[in-house]
TrEMBL record:
InterPro entries: Ac_CoA_lig (IPR011904), ACAS_N (IPR032387), AMP-bd_C (IPR025110), AMP-bd_C_sf (IPR045851), AMP-binding_CS (IPR020845), AMP-dep_synth/lig_dom (IPR000873), ANL_N_sf (IPR042099). This is Acetyl-coenzyme A synthetase. One of its GO terms (biological process) is acetyl-CoA biosynthetic process from acetate. It catalyses: propanoate + ATP + CoA = propanoyl-CoA + AMP + diphosphate; acetate + ATP + CoA = acetyl-CoA + AMP + diphosphate. PANTHER family: ACETYL-COENZYME A SYNTHETASE (PTHR24095:SF83). Residues 105-492 form the AMP-dependent synthetase/ligase domain. It comes from the Eukaryota. It comes from Cyclopterus lumpus (Lumpsucker). Residues 49-103 form the Acetyl-coenzyme A synthetase N-terminal domain. It is an enzyme of class 6 (ligase). Residues 553-633 form the AMP-binding enzyme C-terminal domain. Its EC number is 6.2.1.1. The lineage of its organism: Eukaryota, Metazoa, Chordata, Craniata, Vertebrata.
Length: 673
């Protein structure tokens, strides 16, 4: 069948689609030219038919795409074997492949000198280009080095590095030898890193001597030293040199570049089963403990590749500029795996949007000739405040598509991105997805080039994605112009398979709330036209500058302070960050603390135990009690309304144990700092 499909692509005359009622703009789309894999789909003559086909024949759709887009060592015999209600997800069963071969070797065969990575170092104007040939070489040396140091198939390697080619080579080296990687954002504290190393049962860590971001040096190796003190399983730490400053090395440490030079440039790739683990990535949930989402080989790679190709309309020769850090899922899917699987050229951005000045992004777009730019609303909102001149200074004529990810993009930011950054020429794709979904699930494209895009809306499901809204009783909302809990009605290859070491939690979080559906934790509105707009989290997860953080995680830290009896953390609407952190703290009876000193102490604790971005913007300290239900649950809904000064919205307080608690908060009792 695969052979037949392939022949179709190359030998048959392209099918010109008919202009249907849905395509009144008179677009003549050629489905096979648009998507070669679609050439064999019966009766699919235009793009909307392709979308429908992908949803109602998701198996045939993904089988064709998987056969043609990936290189297999052994073909799969079963396209999917999934039971959403039990959280059992398997794709491309029986198949074997190697992800690093798909991202490197096959492109080295066809175009070895093509640039794979452009490392946009923190020091602007000093970018480094890495070809496919040299990235493969780096990956192989590193794969051999890891193997020589005993890293085996199935082991987990923690990567604590800034966004740089060696970090990408580390990810791919793990994939090459069949180890799973666990990238931890280099902004996380030693304790947060240690918790993730322990939970992942990782025996190996890869890091750099120091990081450099926004002109500031961070002591990453020292952070690792502190972290591994509480991780007895860690046997070895590989240390690469990002700066020239030497760091103290212990018996456990390995000088990475030096040792890599001794290794062979050929490294036998492991034949991995489709459902072997590719990586873990920790993210916040509504309880205190971050969860290690597990992604597997074939389905994840395929989904990242296809979404990268079609959402952004990425074509051969384009330069793709995703400015996310590799410590987040966006960096995994759209700085590394998607672009490399497609043989693309991808930018690794190490800096910040305002270093050395607020023109950084656009100067980079000009210098690197970026065609697709993918960033976060929080940065767009920040840059908007600095004014249009910083954008106008630079030539942005190479830009074709602008993407947004991580949080809702407000209309003002969307308009500015579209009008000023894109000169009104480039489609803006607001892409909704999650660590759990592996890749983009809702976004305005792919669709016909002149299909409407509504500001601030993710709008349309990607191929095979079937969004469903549920009401509060758990019933499917079938009409339009409704809001509900956003679920996805059928499995797709990119979805996470489990939570590392806690499948039960996976089932309870994603599968149990709406049996038979994947529950996203987000709310959404479906417009009259049937377009989706994400309205925000339905659980106790807040989104600070695109970083997900559980309110319970912050509360856990605050409660560890000897002076604190209990605390409640909520998110509130923040101009730049999207959401800010607001903490209510109740002190123990007998403590004597000064407001500002206590706040300082609490902030230090949060930054030490989690990361700086999780620090509260406001802490309201008082000695009274928090509003609770009679069963003892903190009423965060009430606290949110008070902070928003929406006192009418506070609603029914009759279920509160002690309604005077709310009055005291409204009257602003306590110290605010
Ligand atoms: C990719 C990523 C996921 C959460 C998600 C949602 C929010 C992401 C969004 C968006 C509105 C968008 N989110 N994209 N909200 N519009 N385009 O960000 O993954 O870090 O796991 O966060 O972010 O609330 O549930 P992750």
């Amino acid at each position: 069948a695969a052979e037949a499909l392939r022949m179709n692509v190359t030998s048959d005359l392209p099918v010109i689609c008919q202009v249907t009622a849905k395509h009144t703009a008179g677009i003549k789309c050629n489905v096979a030219a648009f998507m070669p894999e679609a050439a064999g789909f019966d009766g699919v003559s235009d793009r909307s038919a392709l979308q429908e086909f992908s949803v109602s024949n998701s198996e045939s759709f993904w089988a064709a795409v998987a056969r043609q887009r990936l290189s297999w060592i052994r073909p799969f015999h079963t396209v999917q074997d999934c039971d959403l209600s039990r959280g059992e997800i398997k794709w491309f069963v029986g198949g074997q492949l190697n992800v690093s071969v798909n991202c490197l070797d096959r492109h080295v065969h066809t175009c070895p000198e093509r640039v794979a990575l452009i490392w946009e170092r923190d020091e602007s104007g000093s970018e480094v280009k890495v070809t496919y040939r040299s990235l493969l070489e780096m990956t192989c040396r590193l794969g051999n080095l890891l193997r020589r140091h005993g890293v085996k198939r199935g082991d987990c390697v923690t990567i604590y590095m800034p966004t740089c080619p060696l970090a990408v080579a580390s990810m791919l080296a793990c994939a090459r030898i069949g180890a799973a990687h666990n990238v931890v954002f280099a902004g996380f504290s030693a304790e947060a890193l240690a918790e993730r190393i322990r939970d992942a049962q990782s025996g190996t860590v890869i890091t750099v001597n120091q990081g450099v971001r926004g002109g500031k040096v961070t002591e990453l190796k020292k952070t690792v030293d502190t972290a591994v003190q509480s991780c007895p399983a860690v046997q070895q730490v590989f240390v690469a040199m990002r700066t020239e400053n030497p760091v103290a090395m212990t018996a456990r440490d390995v000088a990475m570049e030096e040792e890599m030079l001794k290794e062979d440039v050929v490294c036998e790739p492991a034949a991995m089963d489709s459902e072997d683990v590719l990586f873990l990535l920790y993210t916040s949930g509504s309880t205190g403990k971050p969860k290690g989402l597990v992604h597997t080989q074939a389905g994840y790679l395929l989904y990242a590749a296809l979404t990268h190709r079609y959402v952004f309309s990425y074509h051969d020769g384009d330069v793709f500029g995703c400015v996310a850090d590799i410590g987040w899922i966006t960096g995994h899917s759209y700085s590394v795996y998607g672009p490399l699987a497609n043989g693309g050229t991808t930018v690794l951005f190490e800096s910040t949007p305002i270093y050395p000045d607020p023109g950084r992004y656009w100067e980079m777009v000009q210098r690197l000739k970026i065609n697709q730019f993918y960033g976060a609303p929080t940065a767009i909102r920040l840059l908007l405040k600095y004014g249009d001149e910083w954008v106008h200074k630079y030539d942005r004529s190479t830009l074709k598509t602008l993407g947004s990810v991580g949080e809702p993009i407000n209309t003002e930011a969307w308009e500015w991105y579209h009008r000023v950054v894109g000169d009104g020429r480039c489609p803006v794709v607001d892409t909704w997805w999650q660590t759990e979904t592996g890749g983009i699930c809702i976004s305005p494209r792919p669709s016909d080039a002149d299909a409407e895009i509504v500001p601030g809306m993710a709008m349309r499901p990607f191929f095979s994605i079937k969004p469903t809204l549920m009401d509060t009783e758990g019933k499917v909302l079938t009409s339009n112009d409704v809001s509900g809990a956003l679920c996805i009605a059928q499995p797709w290859p990119g979805m996470a398979r489990t939570i590392h070491n806690n499948h039960q939690r996976f089932i309870e979080t994603y599968c149990r709330p709406h049996p038979g559906y994947f529950f996203t934790g987000d709310g959404a509105y479906r417009s009259k036209e049937g377009y989706y707009q994400i309205t925000g989290r339905l659980d106790d997860v807040i989104n600070v500058s695109g970083h997900r953080i559980g309110t319970a995680e912050i509360e856990d830290v605050l409660n560890q302070c000897a002076a604190v009896a209990e605390s409640a953390v909520i998110g509130y609407s923040h101009d730049l960050k999207g959401q800010g952190v607001y903490a209510f703290v109740v002190l123990k009876n007998d403590v004597e603390v000064q407001g500002a000193a206590l706040c300082q102490q609490l902030n230090n604790m949060v930054s030490k135990k989690i990361a700086k971005y999780a620090c509260p913007d406001f802490i309201q300290v008082f000695v009274q009690r928090l509003p609770k239900t009679r069963s003892g649950k903190i009423m965060r809904r009430v606290l949110r309304k008070v902070v928003e000064r929406d006192l009418d919205g506070v609603g029914d307080l009759s279920t509160l144990d002690d309604p005077t608690a709310v009055q005291e908060i409204i009257q602003g009792h306590g110290d605010l700092c």
